[in-house]
Automatic annotation (TrEMBL):
Keywords: Membrane, Transmembrane, Transmembrane helix. InterPro entries: YdbS-like_PH (IPR005182). It comes from the Bacteria. This is PH domain-containing protein. PANTHER family: BLL0215 PROTEIN. The keyword Membrane applies. The chain crosses the membrane at residues 36-53, 59-82. Residues 82-152 form the YdbS-like PH domain. It holds the Pfam family bPH_2.
């Protein structure tokens, strides 16, 4: 299950020479709902305040637009973060890469994952995302909850197939 919007070069830079990528996805688009809603709300509030206050009140009008610009830039930042966050599962490892300016790669060897489960809230069931919970024997749980995973039931089954090596 490879997301076609992810360039092969993006995946290859994290793989070992003999490693094969099985799953490569971005976080679900619904992670952008809150930032987009906040930016739209700020813009609507600014427009309502601009219509309410007379044009002679220049202080209010001048103070509104930086708030709108800041909220739109904040929303665009979240979009950039979403575009650069990936969830990879190879035949050997589970990885999450995050960050726009500073890159962070979290990794757990697949053979160290002792328990795998997924959770789906009502909104996750409606929109098609969930949270994968990985328990491992590694002392530091750097990669425990992976939120906003698209198709979590399909990814869960595919990861179980890799963990239990049902083909061999």
């Amino acid at each position: 299950m490879l997301d076609p919007s992810i360039r092969p070069k993006t995946v290859q830079r994290y793989l070992l020479p003999a490693e094969k990528c099985v799953i490569a996805v971005r976080r679900h688009w619904s992670v952008l709902i809150r930032p987009a809603g906040a930016a739209a709300g700020a813009a609507a509030l600014a427009i309502a305040m601009a219509m309410y206050f007379p044009e002679e009140n220049a202080v209010v009008h001048l103070a509104l637009w930086p708030v709108v610009v800041a909220s739109v830039l904040w929303c665009l930042w979240h979009y950039l973060v979403w575009r650069h966050d990936y969830f990879f599962v190879t035949d050997r490892r589970v990885m999450v890469t995050t960050g726009v300016l500073t890159r962070r790669v979290l990794m757990v060897p697949l053979d160290k994952v002792t328990e795998l489960k997924f959770q789906r809230s009502l909104s996750g069931r409606i929109l098609g995302h969930g949270t994968l919970v990985l328990e491992s024997g590694v002392t530091e749980d750097a990669l425990k909850d992976v939120e906003y995973v698209p198709w979590p039931d399909t990814i869960y089954v595919r990861m179980c197939d890799l963990m239990f090596d049902t083909k061999g």
